[in-house]
Specification:
The protein is an alpha/beta fold and 452 residues long. The protein has a single domain, classed as Glycosidases (TIM Barrel). Helix content is 38%, strand content 13%. The chain has 16 helices and 13 strands. The strands form 3 sheets. Strands 1-2-3-4-5-7-10-11 form an 8-stranded parallel β-barrel, surrounded by 5 helices. A hairpin with a 6-residue loop joins strand 8 and strand 9. Helix 8 packs antiparallel against helix 9 and helix 15 packs parallel to helix 16. The longest helix is centred in the middle third of the chain and has 25 residues. The protein is globular, with a radius of gyration of 21 Å. The two termini are 12 Å apart. The structure holds beta-D-fucopyranose (FCB). Beta-D-fucopyranose (FCB) binds next to loops.
Length: 452
Amino acid sequence: MPFREDFIWGAATSSYQIEGGAFEDGRGLSVWDAFSHQPGKVFEGHTGDVSSDHYHRYFEDVDLLARMGINNYRFSVSWPRLLPEGTGTVNRKGVDFYNRLVDALLEKGIRPWMTLYHWDLPYALQARGGWENPDMPQWFEDYAKLCALSFGDRVRDFIPLNEPQCFIGMGCGSGVHAPGLVMGKHATVPMAHHVVKANGLSTQALRALVPGCSVGYAPNMNPCMPATKSEADIAAARAAYFHVPEGDDWHWNVSWWSDPVMLGEYPAQGLELLERFLPRGWEKDMPLIHQKLDYYGQNIYQGHVIRAADNARGWDEVPRPFGIAKTASQWPVTPEALYWGPRFLYERYQTPILITENGLSCHDALSLNGKVHDPNRENYVHRYLLNLRRAAGDGADIAGYFYWSLLDNFEWAEGYSDRFGLVFVDYTTGERTIKESAWWYKKVMESNGESL
Ligand code: FCB
């Protein structure tokens, strides 16, 4: 079965990863500015100060999107560019930047998909406790209202939050991302509750202020793929995918972050482990957290193979085969993740699935002929998309796919060592070169996946 006729084909970026202009035009500090400037936190001390310089080159980047035939562009707004202190006084120059970007997109017929939070929390709010502060949902709601009022006359599609598993788990649990906190469940579980509450409040605000808009969610989690097609292995993979881990890595799961939003309740197995860490009175927040969403977004890059096992939980992970293909970031290439992930997610949440990110880093280089040849990217995307199409054929409602990323950019703690873009960026000159895979992707989009 082919993809839906109205299938959304696009590419994605995020503010701190591409914009640069970190200290310009009144932008406030974000936790990522503070973190990347701390010695030893990011590969070779890289920062997002200049990055892909999108702040100055946004017009050229919109033009690239148009040339590459990309009709949907997912980008994020930098909260501290709009509200340098996180709340209160609005930085008009920040609003103007996104107005110019949105207008340029619309002029080229490109649909803007606005993410409100892709990890660059205003440092001023972190100083007040950040996600640990019970006022965070309210601060986020106010920020969402500002975005709705500033851009909602032209932007119709909103994604309040990107990958809470990462910005809480890696940001405040293991501390490998900003703000670099190392905290246990006593802190991270309440933070997670504030996150889903912020999602509920912002969704309500967006719907009230932008009638008819679409709202989605963009969590992540590596899908579990059954080792064989046996019923036992499929059931084992499903169980593993929605399982909440017992340890300090409890945040690597789907259900704790998504069941409250999509089903209005925390998963029972997770509650057994984590209920005692939830803020007092959490039950009364559940109706607010449970807002109907138009899309259940998911960022998917790789999966784990699971088989049924004769142990207490009933499953085991199968070790990866020797020599498995890997991306430049050393992430295993597991195309079936884009079959089993969407299939299990649709089965559980019964909401159109939007792949809000998928892609890979390669060792891309500018060739002597002026081109960037990246056959590994084409091979990866081709294989993953075939699986996504198969999931659609098997009954999962798949609404769209965004390639991560439009541009090479600042890959968080890995700095500029990983190149995920469809467009190569020379960080010394800022010069852009469209990679060969982008022309291949253009044909895929133009044929709505028929060319795969
Ligand atoms: C995801 C992030 C995105 C990017 C990709 C490679 O976890 O959402 O910003 O870093 O991974």
